[in-house]
Amino acid sequence: MSAILSPGGFEPVAEGCRRAALPSPWPPHSVAVFLIESGGNWLVDVGAATVESVESLGLYLDETLGPGGMPDAVILTHSHLDHAGGLEALDPETVIAHQDTAGLYEANERTPAGRPFVTVVGTSGSLPHMPGWDWVLGEGHAPGHLLLWQPGSGTLLAGDQFLLGLKTPLRIADPTEDSFGAYLETLDRVAALQPAVMLTSHTEAIREPAAWLDRERRRLSRQLDRARAAVQSGARTAEEVTERTYGSIPGPGARQLLLREKLAALRHLAARGEIRRHLSDGQETFGD
Ligand SMILES: [Zn+2]
User: How many Å lie between the centroid of ligand 1 and the Cα of residue 188?
Assistant: First the structure.
């Protein structure tokens, strides 16, 4: 059975925390939002801006908070439109986000209602006005991506950072960013917390976080080994490394994802000084 969430209303998933899944126009076509009760009702993410998503969220909030019920505040895990697009329709008083997420949302760093975001800065901290919950930075997929952490129950809301049975796409838009390294750092940061369960934004929960995080780390170090070996044997671009590693890849979607991961891995090896990177005329090449 697929681990991808099917759309449906709020159900309890952790102490004081419910999850609903909204329809989304982007793969994997559904996205979770969480309602946390802690000195008020906090909605984590708001779904897409589509009519279908906005109506579903309205209905699910009515069912849980009573007709016309609205959360007291919203927390955005990151700025991607399947998670943050619906903000416009909801228009809450308070929106909490990492400073880097707020910076990406609108050029003027304001919510659709024209109010400033309440921002958090750095790599971890407690959430303002939300007793029992902390936040941890989880980068590699999106700048300023927040993971929400309830130490009392060992529950981590992992957003898009960790997904059961799906690879998290690493960011490659900025050639100066080491998104692979940032993702590895997040694995360490989260492993140190020793979570009991990790809830994700698109899939069923990860029930054995320690084993999962360990497998993910081994997968990534194998990736680095293969990328390093391919460069040593003469591959110079992410395309060549991907071809040497996988041969012919079925389907443009799978190929895109693999190319992206290879490019992120190569940039990480370059950032660590293990291989050299050259950028000229928009062409990014690597050498040993
Ligand atoms: Zn997402």
Answer: 22
Closest among 40, 19, 22 to 31, alpha carbons compared: 22
pLDDT of 175 strictly over 90: no
* Residues 70, 114 within the same domain: yes
Q: Are residues 247 and 145 in the same domain?
A: no
Quick one: what percent of the chain has pLDDT higher than 90? 76
The alpha carbon of residue 57 and the mean position of all alpha carbons in its chain are separated, in whole angstroms, by 20
Q: Which long-range contacts (CB under 8 A, 24 or more apart) does 103-109 make?
A: 103/143, 103/144, 104/79, 104/143, 104/144, 105/76, 105/79
Domain co-membership, 156 together with 277: no
Ligand 1 mean position, distance from CA 229 (Å): 32
**Residue 273 sits in the same domain as residue 171:** no
- Structural domain of 283: 236-287
- Checking if the pLDDT of 1 tops 90, the result is no
| Ligand 1 ion local residues (Cβ < 5 A) | 82, 160
Same domain for 84 and 174, yes or no, is yes
Same-domain check for residues 246 and 198: no
Instruction: Look up residue 142 and give its DSSP letter.
Output: S
Q: Domains in the chain: how many in total?
A: 2
pLDDT in tens, 41-61: 999 999 999 999 999 999 999
Ligand 1 centre and the CA of 276: distance in Å?
A: 32
| Residue 201 alpha carbon to ligand 1 centre in Å | 6
Query: Lowest mean pLDDT: which of 24-38, 109-123, 209-223?
Result: 109-123
Asked if the structure places residue 108 within a domain, the reply is: yes
